[in-house]
Amino acid sequence: MGADDVTEIVPPEGGTMRDLLRAGSDGDRVDLGAIDPRSMPGLPAAAGAGGGRKAWARRQVEVIGAELGRQQEMLFAAAKAAQPGAATSAPTTGGPELGGDRPGRVLLVLQAMDCGGKDGTIKRVAGAMNPLGLHIRSFGPPTAEELRHDFLWRIRRALPPPGYVGIFNRSHYEDVLVARVDGLVPEATWRARYDEINEFERELTAGGVTVVKVMLHISRAEQGERLLDRLTEPRKYWKYNPGDIDARSRWDDYQAAYAEALARCGPAGAPWFVVPADRKWYRDWAVAHLLRETFDTLDLGYPPADFDVAAERARLRGLRTGQGERRVNEA
Ligand code: AMP
Ligand code: MG
User: Fold this and answer.
1) Residue 103: what pLDDT?
2) Cα(148) to centroid of ligand 1, in Å?
3) Could you list which residues have their CB under 5 Å from ion ligand 2?
């Protein structure tokens, strides 16, 4: 059977992706060295072997994507039903308010070294969902205004409104990663941030935000290949930043910073997942499943009508045969 024939979601093998990829949070470091960036936890035998796996996984991402789109629509519909206008109004400048009785939202946090595949993941996985319900935000070096506030200020403002699926392309974790490695703030400052982040994420969870944190785990060798590609292919120059080589030269420091951030900032409701990411097709397949499983925990459904369906049907039939409809159509 070819990859194109499979129209059902084939479950991962050996457990859920949430179980297989959850970062072990014992101690104060996650042992990233023990996770092979080329490994493929959960990939079922049905994927086949060799080059066929890639086509199979790409097709599965499309199939899972349709399901993600359906789940996203239910999230959006629930928010709209709970609070007319909520899911359609633009977020306020102060960031959407949190509250236990507010309808749900999902927030996917993507972190990775340069070339780790954050953009590609968003394109492939989020690309399957309805743009109407997505809230995608990227974080670069803080602006002068952002620097005048605490590090979570810009993050709060970027939260998805109720009913939306938010995606953070980099996040508040940069403030314990690059800030630490580059010594942008004193150690006491970035160390204190672990607790601040945990407190913040507990607040999010309590406020109805389902947080999924994903580290795309690539090898130094793979990053080298991808950087070279960006320097070889003129169409990719725009993705390259000379600073990437500086960050690469601090590879071990970054891995240590990730290892500690992942271990220290995994409050119960906001776990970290480490996705082996040297193979792009596996990465996308894994993240798609993580999202699907996360939606499943929300047990979403379509909201019931808040109007009399039979009466509305009768009105519609009346209009169809009567004068009213013709007048509407002619107008
Ligand atoms: P890119 O994701 O390739 O557009 O790069 C964004 C850059 O912004 C990376 O070099 C990050 O390290 C940097 N960046 C993001 N957040 C922060 C932060 N809080 N402090 C300093 N640099 C940051
Ligand atoms: Mg970059």
Assistant:
1) 64
2) 17
3) 114
Q: What is the DSSP letter of 104?
A: P
Residue of 241, 216, 248, 25 lying closest to 111 (CA atoms): 216
Express as a percent the part of the chain with pLDDT over 90: 81
User: Which is the closest atom of ligand 1 to the Cα of 119?
Assistant: 2
Residues 6+ apart with CB under 8 A from 19: none
Structure token pair of residue 156 = 């709060």
Query: Ligand 1 atom 23: the closest Cα is on which residue?
Result: 141
Q: Which atom of ligand 1 is nearest to the CA of 247?
A: 10
User: Amino acid identity of 254?
Assistant: Y
Helices of type H across 104-184: 118-125, 144-147, 153-157, 178-181
Phi, psi of 168 (to 5 degrees): -100, 120
Confidence bin at 51 (pLDDT 50/70/90): confident
Provide the total of helices (H) and of strands (E) in the chain, helices listed first.
13, 5
- pLDDT score of 94: 43
For 159, the token pair is 């939260």
* Alpha carbon distances (Å) from 111 to 50, 177, 198, 204, 293: 28, 10, 17, 18, 20
* Nearest in space to 170 (alpha carbons), one of 131, 217, 119, 211: 119
Distance CA 167, CA 106 (A): 8
Q: What is the pLDDT of residue 331?
A: 42
Q: How far is Cα 32 from Cα 134, in angstroms, rounded to an integer?
A: 31
Ligand 1, atom 11: closest residue by C-alpha? 140
- For 110-150, how does the pLDDT look when each residue is reduced to its tens digit (9 = 90+)? 999 999 999 999 999 999 898 989 999 999 999 999 999 99
The label of the residue with tokens 């090898």 reads 219
What are the residues facing 109 on neighbouring strands? 168, 213
| Residue 168: strand pairing partners | 109, 137
List of residues 6+ apart from 233 with CB closer than 8 A: none
> pLDDT value at position 90?
45
